[in-house]
């Protein structure tokens, strides 16, 4: 089995094969090649570079994950802005290229398809899984060179909340039943996710909306070792282990000798059930869930977290919200390693309210609502305006056209589309 599924955009258009779907449901990771022509993606990058040059006295960003608030909604770190020449992560949301990418027909169609792979176990769930909406995130243009940041294996969308929040915990109820019941866990059932609170501690820079697929679109030809994404492509297995991990511990007679990860014995005999242990390995309130060789030894992250295959400009990469992922610390390639962070997000009531607020920040050239404020790009030359987006589908994912389904998949979809149109003022 191919661990990281790569398909052509034409495969998305005609629908993936059962075999491909089987792989995707197991691994939770997908690369879609060829939906956006390479030349178009490279032109996007050039236009971003021109925009940065034209506004260089005002551009802000961060050199690394640890410099400040950054990286596609990861947890925040204190820091200060840097000179434009050293920026890797740009505080840019409203460039023409980003908005053109977010509204590109191939991205919309791919996201529609990927969202439809989720399902509702409750027909009254207030969600439309065939209606993608746009989520404005930032972008990365990372030059080659020595390591500027390290982003170890983690899962976004809260940490301790997976156990602490009753609704979030309910998403994993089969796993928590014990025994063989974990096999009934369905990572693509959207219904219990809608009520989950992934942010009990008001973590700054958290993604506040429901985002079933994280993702980015490549603006460069980037292979393993060139600062790309790393993933652990075993969705249900990893989730089952992660959720049960707080309830077992290393036997005390082994614990003393296990000072480094390679010393930790993995045999079942070396571990005991401990339901009273108050420790939740890798979970820190207000941070993403860390997954390390120390905290989750049986996942063997040093071996199982792998770099994704080479991508070309225009390729889209998506990973399920529960997938453990990391970013390569080194970039030993020759060219830049550049992406636009663009996830696949469905229409829900909460996402519609976010879309309404994001529509306003877009028109004003401000950072989108989840991100650090300030004047953003409001005084920048050449930022995107609504007139740049011609297609009705494109304007709809941005919240400028009503959602107009005439027939509905279920009652929940009917209700959420009506509610969303009202929230957006249509
Ligand atoms: Fe992440």
From TrEMBL:
SUPFAM superfamilies: Clavaminate synthase-like
InterPro entries hit by this protein: Gig2-like, IPNS-like_sf
Taxonomic source organism: Trametes pubescens
Top-rank lineage group of the source organism: Eukaryota
Protein name: DUF1479-domain-containing protein
A Pfam family matched in the record: Gig2-like
